[in-house]
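Chain A, query sequence.
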Amino acid sequence: MENQYYTLMEKQDFFQIIENKYGELAVFIDARDGEPQEPVLEFDGKKTALLKRDARRSIILDGVDAETCNVLAESEVVMIVELQGEIVQRVYAVPVENVEEIIFSGRRTRADELFQAKSKEELLKSFGAVKVWTSGSEK
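Chain A, predicted structure.
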């Protein structure tokens, strides 16, 4: 693996995790520039997940709701939904890797808060959500 001198680690202050009636999970986050390249979600089984979106950008999801932890730990794949204001920018599946500890490397920044989008409700309805967990920092 080459050295990644420009790896950017962004903290997603507000995110939602939803579950549909089939037990599938979707994670709603702010949209980022560019298409994801071989993304993966690492989860420590406690309260922190790290979305490795591509070789140069990772998204820290800290403060995962306690009820969500067991469901997320048992998931093999989750859907990532990236929102830009009121618009769904992209939806993609990522494998979940359970790890003992999340290794943070790179330069940390703060992400903007997620704005609730009207079109998000349409996506929730078509996804068939039966549970929604709000996680992360308090507003």
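Confidence is low (pLDDT under 50) at residues 1-5, 111-118. The radius of gyration is 14 Å.
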